[in-house]
Amino acid sequence: MTDSQQTAAAQDAQMVVEKDRNRAALRKTFYGRILRSVIVGFWVMVIAFSLMRLSPGDPVRLALGADVTEEAVDAFRTQLGLDKPFYIQFWDYFTGIFRGDLGYSYFSGRDVTEIIGTHLPVTLMIIGLSILFAALISLPLALFVATSKSNTVNYMFRALTSVSLAIPGFFLALLGLLVFGVYFNIAPAAGYEGAFPGNLKYLWLPALANCGSLVPVLSRVLHSSLVDTLDEEFVETGVIRGVRKGRFYWSYLLRPSLAPTVVLLSYMVGVMIGGTVIMETIFSLPGIGRELITAVDGRDYPVVQSIAMIFGLIVVFFSFIGDLTGYLLDRRVTLS
Amino acid sequence: MSSNVETQEKPKKRFIKEGTFGIYTGFFMLGSLIVAGAIIPRISKYGADDLAAIPLAPPSRANFFGTDVLGRDVFVRVFDAVFIDLGTAIIGVSIPLIVGTIIGTLLGISQSKRINAVVGSLIDGINAFPFLIFVIALIAFIGPGVGSIVLAISLVNWARYARIARTRAVVVNKQGYIEAARTLGYSKKRILFKHIIPNVSSETRAYALSDFIIVIIAVAALSFLGLGIKPPQAEWGGMIRDGKDLLTVGFWWPTVFPGLALCWAGIAVAFISEGLTRRMREVGTR
Amino acid sequence: MSASNTPLIQVRDVVIGIPHKRRPTLTIVNKANFDINYGEMVGIVGESGSGKTMICRTMIGTLERRGGKILSGDVLFEGESLARASESDWKKLRGKSIGYVPQSALAGPNPVLTIEAQLAEALRNTGDTKNIKSRSKELLELVKIRRVDTVLKQYPYQLSGGMRQRVMIACALATSPKLLIADEPTTGLDVTVQSQIMDLLKEIRSTMGTAIVLISHDLALIDEVCDRVVVMHAGATVEVGSVKELVKPRHPYTIALNSSRIDIAQPGSELVTIKGNAPSVGEWNPGCRFADRCSIVQADCRTGEHPELIGASGTHQTACIHTELLERI
């Protein structure tokens, strides 16, 4: 028995060490990842702030138009704090962000925070709905193709995903409008009403068109990790153990394959935001993207700058959440 | 029974390499679009801006794709737009490819931790912005037009190439043949341009192909949003914008045909990209 | 134990191939013959590609999902055909009468399930769903894991390779199987852990009377723990005998395997390696498939089919038709 006692003692020691190592490693990667997000978030603010300086002319003069007096321009400049030195401007802007003060629109004079606050929920809803649709399409599709032994199915999947990657979202949206709005007449071409379940009537088609750019990428990544998983030895043990079908698909195939897809999904939030801007324009939805286009048309710089910054921060936030979720789903994944 | 299983033939060698079909199809699609873009506007009865027939005439023998709201021939305009759309996208991919590869490579082989931390997080910062949003925001400040589009796309996109190049350069820089070249006393410049950059750029060039699809869609999307190439220049995104309000009242042709042309170009590149990826993977597994 | 004289497993002339739509079927195993008796510990040894893993897949019914197919012959479990077993037959067999310990300890357990969940799955497979928790603990104690309560709540990534393999053995034992198949169970584990796992397998055999098939490319390892050895080369069994009998091998391939062993090499003498590579699947020449690598090859070795095993089952069998020349090696 001495032998096995020794073994057991060695095991104990090893377990304690492993546990500590795991905790320490987790803590370290977690804080490291937060730090990285904060640094990148800081850069996002710096870049958004610097946008104003890129303008070839004087932004104030451009905004006010040609026929204003020199005094009016100067007054406006002082009012905006643009006469102060660069670093003070940045400090004001930077601290302003944390006070929720993003400045005022040149035109409507409205608080930019308020503009974003009223319009962001619509945009986030379109994004959320797009992701939901994309998941509902990609998951069964990838699962079907990965478990199919047919070469034709695999070939068709590759060809179709690569073709659909090349179809622009705005064209897809217009075709959708033609089919569902005109031909079947089940989707409104424009208009919106506020409250949650009611607005789905206006949001489902934009979200469906928007997920067109997400589905090929998502299903491909999920498909390739499913194929990898199917080759894993634990799948074999699952088969041998006679695990029930539903549980097998979830615990032995999907969950071990999901982590890369979730991480990718969080990176695709940026693409989704870009698509949403177009969808809001096409379907006249009161989202933040349409505000952006209006602001660009009107050279409403504070609004453009702040919307770009908010979107940048949203992406930073989601890629953090995505990395973390991927890690929690499957500890074999390392936090990048 | 067992003997016939045992005297099996060797599997036939496949002479057609993996991905060849995709590459040829892609090049054929792209080539035919370019040829059509070069010939059709020249030999057509109407110019791109000529009023060819009554407005919104449906597709017919005289006007294959019908006419738009001003009575211009959609067929001619679709092909007249080939060069502006493809050209803007090609330049919009090439500049970031070159700039990003060089900056990323230099960063990857740089020994300075401080430069790596600062420039590295700047690259992450730029990449954090959604591509289209950042380009739109830049255009707000520098104004619309072909030049602005290329400039805006380049200012955003170099960082994506730089990230790929940097990761790759770190790996390449540690490879044996680079060490060997150093030991042989080759100059730093020579090692960089003859050995490191070609190896790094194989990866960024592969990304450039898939990026081309994103960029050509972005160029059209900007015009579609009214921020890109200005009318009357025929351009796919702009044509779709002009026709979109008529779509719901039954005039589909001014919108659908330029959209199909845009898809055609994107699909061509997607096929080439997919074929090359498969071929590279096959070479890798051998 | 079964009263009858039928062996637990009978592998009878089994031919296993991988069918392909456009290309001819690749035969991977052809002319494999051996028995496994109740409570016996048998080692299957061979190079990679010799078909040993394929044979073990036919015993656990995962051949088809890996693209393989039994073309002819059969594998009998307690006299019942496994080649003709339906999916519902397999449901009864797999994990119940036949347990399986996978190759790689690191990839064996499901990474997203706790140890408790995996043991519970295995235990539910017996049909008896009572006292899962206490039975799980018993199983972990059986494979000599301490701090059972902690381990139950852990995920595989929190355990060392040796511990993971113990857990896999516990899962395989959940249903008290008659046969346990361990396919290179110590791949990637270091030597001390490897011998602990082997000791554990030996102990399970003696206390529970489970027959164990140990698949390995390491003849020294098999010598140490097994009763009998099956030597495979290029999809065929070339020699079958007890460990004692194999001290005097009767097939040139086994002799070559023996002389390339590090553990019994004479100090100072050169380590012998086996000439050439095992013939690739699909590139088998007529006659004995070892002919090209054999140092005593004769003209008649290169004609006809691969030779059958000579001798009755249960005795020392060899597939070499020129055993009289073996002394020359």
CATH superfamily of the domain at 9-38 and 51-97 and 227-328 in chain C: P-loop containing nucleotide triphosphate hydrolases
User: Could you state the CATH homologous superfamily of the domain at 112-329 in chain A?
Assistant: MetI-like
> Structural class of the secondary elements of chain C?
alpha/beta
The CATH architecture of the domain at 112-329 in chain A can be given as: Orthogonal Bundle
The counted number of beta strands of chain A is 0
Based on CA inertia axes, which overall geometry of chain A fits? flat
Summarize this, please?
Chain A is mainly α. Chain A has helices at residues 2-54, 59-64, 70-80, 86-98, 112-147, 151-165, 169-183, 196-210, 215-230, 233-240, 245-267, 269-282, 288-297, 301-329. Chain A is flat.
Tell me what you see in this structure.
The complex is a heterotrimer of chains A (336), B (286) and C (329). Chain A is mainly α and 336 residues long. Chain A is 79% helix and 0% strand. Chain A has a domain at 112-329: Orthogonal Bundle (MetI-like fold), CATH 1.10.3720.10. In chain A, helix 5 crosses helix 9 (215-230) and helix 13 packs antiparallel against helix 14. Chain A is flat. The two termini of chain A are 45 Å apart. Chain B starts with a helix and ends with a helix. In chain C, strand 4 (69-77) and strand 5 form a beta hairpin. At the A-B interface, helix 1, helix 6, helix 7, helix 12 and helix 13 of A face helix 5, helix 6, helix 9, helix 10 and helix 11 of B.
List keywords for this structure.
heterotrimer; B: 286 residues; mainly alpha; disordered N terminus; C: 329 residues; alpha/beta; Rossmann fold; seven-stranded mixed beta sheet; four-stranded antiparallel beta sheet; 11 strands; 27% helix; 20% strand
Provide the fold topology.
The complex is a heterotrimer of chains A (about 325), B (about 290) and C (about 325).
Chain A: H1 2-54, H2 59-64, H3 70-80, H4 86-98, H5 112-147, H6 151-165, H7 169-183, H8 196-210, H9 215-230, H10 233-240, H11 245-267, H12 269-282, H13 288-297, H14 301-329
Helix pairs in contact in A: 1-14, 5-8, 5-9, 5-12, 6-9, 7-8, 7-12, 8-12, 9-11, 11-14, 12-13, 13-14
Chain B: H1 2-6, H2 20-43, H3 74-80, H4 82-109, H5 113-128, H6 131-142, H7 146-173, H8 176-183, H9 188-224, H10 236-247, H11 253-285
Helix pairs in contact in B: 2-3, 2-11, 3-11, 4-7, 4-9, 5-7, 6-7, 7-9, 8-9, 9-10, 9-11, 10-11
Chain C: E1 9-18, E2 26-36, E3 41-45, H1 52-60, E4 69-77, E5 80-81, H2 87-93, E6 98-101, H3 115-124, H4 132-142, H5 148-152, H6 161-173, E7 179-183, H7 191-208, E8 211-216, H8 219-225, E9 228-233, E10 236-242, H9 252-259, E11 317-318
Parallel strand pairs in C: 3-8, 3-9, 6-7, 7-8
Antiparallel strand pairs in C: 1-2, 1-4, 4-5, 9-10, 10-11
